[in-house]
Amino acid sequence: xxxxxxxxxxxxxxxxxxxxxxxxxxxxxDAHPAQPKWAVNTVPHIDTTAVLDPEQRRLWRRYERGLxxxxxxxxxxxxxxxxxFQRQQVETMVEHLRQEYxxxxxxxxxxxxxxxxxxxxxxxxxxxxxxxxxxxxxVESKKTMHYGEEKSRNDFADEGVGLVEGCVDPGDDxxxxxxxxxxxxxxxxxxxxDGVQERAHGRGFEGPDAETAQEILASVRExxxxxxxxxxxxxxxxPDSHATVFVRTDAMPTDFADVQVSGIEWTFTDAQRAIVxxxxxxxxx
Length: 285
Known about the structure:
The chain has helices spanning 35-41, 54-65, 87-101, 115-124, 172-181, 210-229, 270-279; strands at 2-5, 11-15, 67-72, 105-110, 132-133, 139-140, 144-146, 161-165, 187-188, 190-193, 196-199, 205-206, 243-248, 259-261. By secondary structure, the chain is an alpha/beta fold.
């Protein structure tokens, strides 16, 4: 058992890893965590080896499973708080996918903070029954999902086209606490703003083990993105089962994307959109 305390000796985390002392090996199915996360959840001295290299995994996913992943743009787009959610860009993306694929596209995955907005965008684009209420009156959705609930979910198994918007972010505390368990030292990078130290933009870390901190952060983001895209094409024994998933983040495992496209370069302003809509109206003869 490992217990992580803060500067006031308050308990931050308590971890009880299974006893692997008699195990010769541990197999992680469909897992992409960094080596430090393996170490805290198994044994500290564990060595990790990939069963398949990235290219083999990509070919298996593409040709055996039928899942095609398209990376849209090169931005990371962390959306844990929803602060950086670019609604107009997402609206444009959803509208384009609806025009291209019609009713074949009707599902999307993102963070819980922006899921309500994503539901509104899908509804405005013509997707039916995005949100409904269950018997208790609670809002539920069969057309959206959020990070944290995606594992082992098969709701989108038969969907042909999907969208994964942005990535999840575990926060600095998760990374720093994990470093403490490993007896490593790094802290969030800060900048001076009017004499006050604030978190630097870009989610960097500083200190002797800053690279390990960055590796932990990246692996959490990447693992959730891979799991989200993996909600599609979940019937590998069916030769007709296949899906194309558009992923708007670069936070994904190496060679996870089959294709990379530039994505949304710019969107209309409200005035520009009004002009285009007006020019597109049919005129009476």
